[in-house]
Each structure stands twice: as structure tokens, then as C-alpha cells.
Write a structure and sequence with these properties.
This protein is an all-alpha fold. It has 15 helices and no strands.
Length: 385
Amino acid sequence: MWYLNMTAMGALAGMIALLMLTRRWSGNKRLLVLLFNLGFLLVFSQKLFVFYLIYTLGNYTVYRHLCLTESGRRAKFIAAVFANIAAVVILRLFGMGTLEHALFDVVITLGLIYNLLKVIDAYYFAYYVGKDGKAPLIDYFNFVLFIPTFTSGPILKFRDFLADTRQPYNVDSKVFEWAVKRIILGLFKKIVVVAIMMSVFQRVLDLPELHTHHSLFLMIWFYALIYFDFSGYSDIAIGFGRLMGYNIPENFKKPFLSPTLTQYWRNWHATMADWFRDHIFLIFARRSTSRWTAAWLSMLVMILIGLWHGFSWLYVLWGLYHGIVLAIENVTNRSTVNKKKVSRRYFYWRCFVTQAIVTIAVIVYSGSSETVLQIYRGLLNWPSF
């Protein structure tokens, strides 16, 4: 979101220049990044600033207690996780207009679904690591409020962020060149490619009547559009993150060359899929390694990912659809394909099938039930010649 605002871009550039000018000060990264994160939010919205100040400080207090406490750790850990989930659900209901209150402002939901995952990851770190997982308040604030990844992915891992925090600020000419090129690539995707593709998409969608070929085109076109959109955001975040001294993980790892849906979700929005796999799938899968357990957990995870994207029946059905395909792959032991052990033709055929499976439901990302139903109806509307 910030990346389409010239003032915000100027602020990020100024912050990077300040970091470079103070590189000989060993503590420059931690303190300056904190001041920048807080100052940025304050200028953007005072309500957003106050909300995240309270939200982050409250969660840090519980996180620190969880690191140090010995009694009732599991109950406290579970309570902290579910309290955050409940709070975010309530706030999203306010944002949707389902609930109303005079004090609510939709701006406080900005970045909330991403920051929820980061807060829960820190709780997992505290629970499993214990006293050694205790981190200073300044590092916790920087982790949650890190501006380059505040409103979108990639999703940071607490342990990786802490590891980067301990390293001095070190951006040489080679890193600077690489990061700037990455930012330019992301901006080109967002400002040029996505804008043009969105115009074409809307023009076809506005036709008086959609036929099968129109709907197929719109689904494939929209799939490419959201790839450039999401990967563009990731490119910019990765570039700015590196210029600020932090290594932001890759979010898209050649997803179109995924021969199974299981492998696809390791490559598309990879940090989100990794988060759900690490914090839900692997935790419960430890009790049973059977294929059926993996199948049911895959369905649960995908439904949760759907709800994470939005509270609507479309996202639930989207999650169920992907979950069923993943479950079938697990039960039939076809969740992976090794490119080196199969023929080239078979590998690319499997990639094509996987992309077809994804394309069928990708239009749900539009977030509009009217658009989704219009395109699906068009699929059944064969043109008369």
C-alpha cells in the first residue's frame, strides 16, 4: 500500500540514506528503524499509531511473561493465541460492517492479518524456546511494525528477524544495486503491468454478455494479474527490507513450475503457506504420520487460509476446494513429483494440470461475489455460431 504513495516512498528513501550515513554507529539499525516505524505510523494515522502501540505493547507483555514463566505455560500460550485471533476476527467484523461502534475506524485493520501471524509466531517462539527466546522490547516492536512488510507479505519469522537484528548494518554497493533493481522491478509490475492488465480485465468483464471463451480468458488473465500484483509487492518489500539491513524471504519461487498442488503452495505466497504449515499442520501431524491425517489437516489448513483472506462463503469454498485436492494428493501419495526421476513431458504435463486446478478457482481472489458468479455463469454460456 505504501509503495503507491510518493511521500511514503520518499520517507523510506530518506530512512535508508540515514542508515547509510550512520553505518559506523553500531546501534543505528535497531534504534533508527524503531523511530522510523513509529514515526511513519504516527504521520500516516494517529488512530493507527495508538492502536498498534497498545496492541504491540500488550502482546509483548504476554510474550515476555510466556518466556519467563514455568507454570501453566501451555494454557497461557493457547489463551494468548486465541485471544489475538478473537480480537482480529472482531475487528474484521467491524471492518465489514457486521458490527458497529462509534470508536471503530477501519484504518486500524490495516495490515492486521499479516501482523496477527507475526505475533502468533513470536508466541510459538516464546513457548518452545523459553527463557532463551526472550527478546528486547525494541526488537519486538521492530518485528511487528516493520514498515516494508506491514501491509502485505512476505511474512517474517521472529527468529530470522532477531538474527538479522544482531547483525550490524552492512549494505555495500553490490547489495544496494541489487535491492534498487528489485524495487524498480516491483514498481514496474505494480504501476505499469498491473494497471494495464486491470484495464483489459475490466473491459472484458464489462461486456454485455460473457461466453465461455470470455470467462476462460478472464480467469487466466486474472491469474497472471494477481501474480504480478502480489509478486510486485514482494519485490518492493524485499528490496527495501534489504536496504534497511534485513533479509526478507522470497514469497514466489517459480510457482508456475509446480507439478503438484502441494508443491505449488510451497512456491506461491510461500511465506504464508510456510506459516500455516509450521504452526498448524506440523504441530498436529506429529501425533500421527498417516496419509489420512495429512489429508484432513490439509483441508483444515486451506479452509483457515481461505478465512484468513476474507470472511465469506466464497473463500471457504475456495479453501475447501484446494483442501480436497491436497487431501487426494496425500492419500494417493502423489503430493510431490521429482523432476529428475520423471520424463520432461510428464513433468510439464503435471505442471499444466496443477495450473489448471489453480486457475479454476483463482477468480475468488477478486473478493467480489458478483464478479465470481458472473464469470462462472459465462463458462456455461456457449457461443452460438
